[in-house]
Specification:
Number of helices: 4
Oligomer: single chain
Shape: elongated
Radius of gyration: 28 Å
Distance between the termini: 101 Å
Helix content: 25-40%
Order of helices and strands: HHHEEEHE
Strand content: 15-25%
Number of strands: 4
Amino acid sequence: MSYRNSKKKILRCVSGITSIEFAMVVPVMMLLIMGIIEFSLIMFTNAVLENAANVTARYGATGFVAAGSSRQDQIIANVRNMTGGLLDPDRIIITTTVYASFDQVERPETCINPATAPCPGTAGVNYVDINGNGQWDADMGVAGLGNANDIVVYQITYPWPVTTPVINTIIGNPFNITVRTVVKNEPYT
């Protein structure tokens, strides 16, 4: 038997071809399945955080404070309860920003002479100091929960740990899931 005939015989041999195809397809399929699971968990976490933000903002807008607690402590506890143990409560970041009206939300303080933005100089001369802190701000809000009739932006951020290696390089690790809601506090006393 010549070398040429044995080479043709090897090339026509199909035993074991299924194993080779399986070995080539399985890694791609596993990556696809792991990616679907990862993104599903991220979307589920986003929905849980949105619900927690909405319920917490509604609770915070009432101004209710239980005896022996502060509004801030109750809001943090409410978010932790709403996430139902799915998330690590120590990694949940809750920020609240107070505004006097809806048209001020995430807007910079007004420059008297817009050509000199970002408005260096003196309050009342170069810019209108809306929040009264003595400096020009790119956002007119102040940290806190506000008082009656104030506008409050509740923002909840959670750094989701991405476990799939390839997806990790695409979207980063951790992947920050951030939700926000804006409410007007009730006219409580």
